[in-house]
Amino acid sequence: MAGNPFSDASSPTRVIAVSSGKGGVGKSSVTVNLAIALALAGNRVGLLDADVYGFSVPAMLGLSGEPVTGEGGVSPLTAFGLSVMSMGFFVPDDQPVIWRGPMLHKALEQFLVDVDWGAPDFLVVDMPPGTGDVALSMSQYLPASEVYVVTTPQPAAKRVAQRSAYMARKLNLPLRGVIENMSWFSAPDGTRYEIFGQGGGAQLAEELGVPLLGQIPLVAAIREGGDAGRPVVAEAPSSEAAAAFRQVADRIVGLGRTRVFRSELRVN
Ligand SMILES: Nc1ncnc2c1ncn2[C@@H]1O[C@H](COP(=O)(O)OP(=O)(O)OP(=O)(O)O)[C@@H](O)[C@H]1O
Ligand SMILES: [Mg+2]
After folding, report:
1. Residue 130: is its pLDDT beyond 50?
2. Å from CA of 193 to ligand 2 middle
3. Mean pLDDT in the chain?
4. Among the bound ligands, the one closest to the CA of 57
5. How many CA atoms lie within 13 A of 126 on its CB side?
C-alpha cells in the first residue's frame, strides 16, 4: 500500500486545518470559501471534509455522487477548481454516520492514502469539532498541519482561546492564525452593525499569540451561497465578503510554511 503523501517531510503540500472552539461559527463556510480563494490565486487546492459526522462541504459546493476509482486511486470530485473528498459522498442522503471510532479512523486514512490528490499546494481541511477521536486521527495522519481557528466577535474569546489552545496542544500542532466570522452586517447605506458584538477575533488572536488574519462580514450571500452550492467567493467575486476571504487566503500564503516538522508523529 502506498503511504500517506501528506505525512512526508518532503511533501509540497501545506495542510491548512480549519477548526473552531465551538460549533456553528461558520467553520465550513470559511473552509470552502478560503479554499476557493486559494485556488483562484493560482494554487492547486484539495479540500478534505474531515467533519465526518457533520459533513456539510458537499452541499456547500453543490457536489453529489460517488467518486470513481481510477489507476491512481480514488478520484476526488471537483468543483470550483478544488479536488474534494467528503464522507458525504459515501453515505446515502440524510443518513447519520454511526460508525465506530476505528472505522472512522480507517475511513480518514483512506481519504489520505487511497485518494489521488495529486500533489496540491494546499490541502484545506474542515476539521471535526473538538478533540475527539477523529481530530486525533487527523493530527496523526497530517502531522504538518497548521491550525487556523474560526471565531465570532463575541467577547467569549477567553474560553474559546483556552479550548483552541488546548486542542492544538493535545494534537501537538502549531496554531497559526485566527479568522473572525460574522464580524458585522453592512446596511445598504454603509452603516456597520456589529450584531454579534466586537473584538472577539482580536482578543482571541492576542490570547493565542497569533495574527488575526481577517474579518468576514455577515452577509446573506454567504448563507444563500452555502445552501445553493454556489460559494460567494466564486459567485460574487467583487463582493465585500469575497474580498475578505481573498485577504485571508493572501495572508495565509504570506505566512509561509511552518518550519518545524514533527517526524515523531509520522503515520504511513
Ligand atoms: N459570514 C456569514 N454570513 C452569513 N451567514 C453565514 C456566515 N458564515 C456562516 N453563515 C451561515 O451560518 C450557518 C453555519 O455556518 P457553517 O455551517 O459554516 O458553520 P460550522 O461552524 O461549520 O457549523 P458546524 O459546527 O455545524 O459544522 C450556515 O447556514 C452558513 O451559511
Ligand atoms: Mg461545519
Report:
1. yes
2. 25
3. 88
4. 2
5. 31
Spacing, Cα 226 to ligand 1 middle (Å): 8
Q: Which position has the higher pLDDT, 207 or 33?
A: 33
List of domains in the chain: 22-256 (3.40.50.300)
Ligand 1 atom nearest the C-alpha of 227 is 31
Q: Which among 29, 34, 160, 186 is the best mutation to test ligand 1's pocket, defined by most ligand atoms within 8 Å of the CB? A: 29
Q: How far is the CA of 31 from the centre of ligand 2 (A)?
A: 9
Residue 234 confidence (pLDDT) above 90:
yes
Nearest ligand, CA of residue 183?
Answer: 1
56 CA → ligand 2 middle, Å? 6
Residue nearest atom 15 of ligand 1, based on CA coordinates: 26
User: If DSSP states are collapsed to H, E and C, what string results for 12-68?
Assistant: CCEEEEEEECCCCCCHHHHHHHHHHHHHHCCCCEEEEECCCCCCCHHHHHCCCCCCC
Each residue of 180-226: pLDDT tens digit? 999 999 888 989 999 988 899 998 899 889 999 999 999 999 999 99
Cβ-contact 246, 233 below 8 angstroms: yes
